[in-house]
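REVIEWER CHECKLIST
Item 1: Sequence provided? yes
Item 2: Single chain? yes
Item 3: Sequence as submitted:
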Amino acid sequence: MNVASLIIIEDDVRIRQTLAARLAERGHDVRAAGSGVAGLELAVSGNPDAVILDLGLPDIDG
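Item 4: Structure as written out by the authors:
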C-alpha cells in the first residue's frame, strides 16, 4: 500500500478525529485542522498529497 500525506480540514471535532484515526490506522501520514485558516497553514507548510475538505467551514468556505 502507498502511504499518502493527508490533511483533513473539518470543523466538527468528531468527524475530524474519526477520519484522522481511520486513515492513520491504514498507515497514512495525517494532519488535521479545525478551521480553514489552520488548514491553509498546514497545506502551505506541508505539501500534502491530498486534502479532505469540509465545504461548509465557518471561517472559509470550500
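Item 5: Key structural point noted by reviewer: The CA atoms of residues 16 and 39 lie 12 Å apart.
Item 6: Recommendation: ____
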